[in-house]
């Protein structure tokens, strides 16, 4: 009787191990699905423009992975830069975009700003860079009216 119970316990134990290993294999296969982001470009140079201009650029990207890509956050390096981005998950093979606007009012001179993009894909973080030169805008001149004599 003892031998039968011991044999039964061993049989159940090995059976449980086999099922556990099979479940582990399923988890490993599912974890192979990874999103991957690929940007057309990661930097943009606006060149030279006058103070007060709202300089805007759109960074386009594609999910080249095999799982949905989610942008967790898109943060500018300062308050003069504001991003707008694709908020819904991007399916494999699909595209998304991040539009960055730089407010040059009161900011004469060279600038370089970054936007930090965190996502659920391979690598997890991408840095986008914008740069340019802001020149002083010409002062407004009030028109002079000359009255005839």
User: What is the CATH architecture descriptor of the largest domain?
Assistant: Sandwich
* N-to-C CA distance: 131 Å
Number of helices: 1
Write down the overall geometry: rod-shaped
For the record, the count of structural domains works out to: 2
CATH topology term of the largest domain: Immunoglobulin-like
Helix content: 10-25%
Largest sheet entry: 4 strands, antiparallel
Q: Order of helices and strands, N to C?
A: HEEEEEEEE
Low-confidence stretches: 20-29
Can you identify the CATH superfamily of the largest domain? Answer: Immunoglobulins
Beta percentage is 35-45%
Give the CATH class of the largest domain. Answer: Mainly Beta
Give a verbal description of the structure.
The chain folds into two domains: 1-32; 37-135, Immunoglobulins (Immunoglobulin-like, Sandwich), CATH 2.60.40.10. It contains one helix and eight strands, in the order αββββββββ. It has one helix spanning 2-31, and strands at residues 37-39, 43-50, 54-63, 71-76, 81-85, 95-103, 109-119, 125-135. The strands form two sheets. Strands 1-3-6-5 form a four-stranded antiparallel beta sheet, with no helix packed on it. The chain has a four-stranded mixed beta sheet with strand order 2-8-7-4, with no helix packed on it. Strand 7 and strand 8 (125-135) form a beta hairpin. The radius of gyration is 29 Å and the shape is rod-shaped.
């Amino acid at each position: 009787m003892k031998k039968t119970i011991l044999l039964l316990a061993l049989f159940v134990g090995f059976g449980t191990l086999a099922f556990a290993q099979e479940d582990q294999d399923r988890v490993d296969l599912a974890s192979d699905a990874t999103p991957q982001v690929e940007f057309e470009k990661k930097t943009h140079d606006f060149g030279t423009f006058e103070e007060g201009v709202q300089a805007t650029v759109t960074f386009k990207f594609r999910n080249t992975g095999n799982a949905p890509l989610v942008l967790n956050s898109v943060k500018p390096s300062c308050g003069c830069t504001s991003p707008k981005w694709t908020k819904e998950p991007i399916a494999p093979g699909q595209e998304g975009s991040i539009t960055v606007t730089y407010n040059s009012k009161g900011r004469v001179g060279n600038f370089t700003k970054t936007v930090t993009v965190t996502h659920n894909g391979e690598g997890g973080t991408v840095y986008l860079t914008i740069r340019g030169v802001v020149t002083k805008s010409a002062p407004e001149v009030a028109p002079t009216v000359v009255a005839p004599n």
